[in-house]
Design a protein that fits this description.
about 20% strand, Alpha-Beta Plaits, 3 domains, alpha+beta, about 475 residues, elongated, five-stranded antiparallel β-sheet, Trigger factor, domain 2
């Protein structure tokens, strides 16, 4: 076997591989002799099967296996002899081979770029933090109160208005025929909740308890059930009772209804939850700041193969986000269509920039981790699996079984863990300055964060209507 370096251009390395027919045939015969010791063929005793018989029966399969082993060995030897660190899977192209002749092939790969030493002490990061104020706690408490607010029958007879809860029976018909899912009895409907189709709740305003009303409406054209979308229907509605909201009193009894010892402990739990949300945004902004610095400050050649792979992945994601059926159908109809087939010039440019940034930062973080012996242990992966399982209460066993049967899924958790470990390492070395900001400033330019601060996981276990 002869390996010759052919090309060294940038990160690309190319080798010529030549394996003589003599080496190939010797390896094939050796393999056949090994098989002959245990092979069973009618009419022959074990270990006495002629090589020519075996070659006639399984020679093609053995030859393929031998050639593959030779190519794998050649790839490994080329990489080891040149002390290379491949970043993409080596590509093998068999140039010439016929049975009984020499094999000629080319090996092409891309290697890890040279990344200069990074002095983390010169990296300046801002740590934006916000204190949890009484207003945030009280606002969250108000939201919890509304989520768990009870109703009671109106004390004085009057007609219904928006904000009331009506106890109703209803039956919907299309062309005078009841349709599936269009009826209910004793249903509690909050007027203004928009839980029914447009016009339904509005049509029940200004009604007295005990009254009946027919509503003639139309389902929205984009309604989820195709057989009802855009169709005209009528509803016969009977109002049994009008209920109004009970003002919430935030005291120990309210807190106990949520499973907390008292109102003080409830407020502390709310404060802790908001603080955790703030900390997550603080960390997210620090990480983005760091990645921007690394992206702008360090420049090195990027492996084209990695860029191409990431570009295709980005294009596929962007295409899915368009949510356009005609584009999706068009792609499905074109066999072998490129991921950027229906993308504009600007969209392709954006996808390329995203791909290059991801590849650069991935290589940088990986290099920092390797140079500083940062590894993810099996115990850390197991802890991450447990954390994933806890996200699905009541289904923990199924989640754990999934990860147990799919080792690749478990290993996929290692990527984010490694990134977090590298990020923590850099932050310990960098010049980090804390800056106290308002909640609004902390969440500026962060839509996910704005949504997070408006929600709470504290819910009442049972709410009476």
């Amino acid at each position: 076997m002869k390996i010759t370096k052919k090309t060294t251009k940038g990160l690309k390395r190319e080798f010529d591989i030549k394996i003589s027919s003599k080496e190939i045939e010797e390896r094939i015969n050796q393999k056949l002799s090994e098989i002959a010791l245990t092979a069973k063929i009618p009419g022959f005793r074990p270990g006495k099967i002629p090589t020519s018989i075996l070659k006639a029966r399984i020679g093609k399969e053995v030859r393929g296996e031998v050639l593959q082993n030779f190519i794998d060995e050649a790839s490994k030897k080329a990489i080891q002899d040149e002390n290379l660190q491949p970043v993409t899977k080596p590509s093998i192209d068999v140039k010439k081979y016929d049975e009984g002749s020499d094999l000629s092939a080319s090996l092409t790969l891309e290697v890890m770029p040279i990344i200069k030493h990074i002095d983390f002490s010169k990296i300046k990061l801002s740590k934006f933090t916000a204190k949890v104020g009484d207003k945030e706690i009280n606002d969250a408490l108000d939201r919890i109160g509304k989520q768990n607010q009870q109703t009671q029958p109106i004390k004085k007879a009057r007609k219904s208005k928006m904000g009331d809860t009506l106890v109703i029976d209803f039956e919907g018909k299309m062309d005078n025929v009841p349709f599936e899912g269009g009826a209910g009895k004793g249903h509690h409907l909050s007027l203004g909740s928009n839980s029914f189709i447009p016009g339904f709740e509005e049509g029940l305003v200004n009604l007295a308890a005990g009254s009946t009303k027919e509503l003639k409406l139309s389902f929205p054209k984009d309604y989820g059930m195709e057989k009802l979308a855009g169709k005209k229907v009528s509803f016969e509605v009977k109002v049994h009772e009008i209920r109004e909201l009970v003002n919430v009193k935030f005291d120990d009894d309210f807190a106990k209804g949520l499973g907390m010892p008292g109102i003080k402990e409830l407020k502390k739990a709310i404060s802790d939850q908001i603080s955790n949300e703030h900390n997550n945004i603080t960390r997210s902004k620090m990480k983005k700041n760091l990645l921007d610095i690394l992206d702008n400050k360090y420049d090195f050649e990027l492996p084209k193969g990695m860029i191409d792979q990431e570009y295709n992945s980005v294009c596929q994601s962007l295409t899915k986000e368009k949510n356009a059926k005609d584009i999706k159908q068009d792609l499905e109809n074109k066999e072998g269509a490129k991921p950027d087939e229906n993308m504009t010039k600007d969209e392709k440019k954006d996808a390329k920039n995203i791909a290059e940034r991801r590849v650069k930062l991935g290589l940088l973080m990986g290099e920092i981790g390797r140079n500083n012996n940062l590894d993810i242990t099996e115990e850390e992966i197991n802890q991450a699996v447990m954390a994933e399982a806890q996200k699905y209460p009541g289904q923990e066993k199924q989640v754990l079984d999934y990860f147990k049967k799919n080792k690749e899924a478990s290993q996929n958790l290692a990527g984010p863990l490694f990134e977090e470990k590298v990020f923590n390492f850099i932050c310990e070395m960098a010049d980090v300055k804390e800056k106290i900001v308002s909640t609004e400033e902390l969440y500026s330019d962060d839509e996910d964060g704005k949504k997070a601060i408006k929600k709470t996981d504290i819910k009442k276990s049972k709410v009476k209507k």
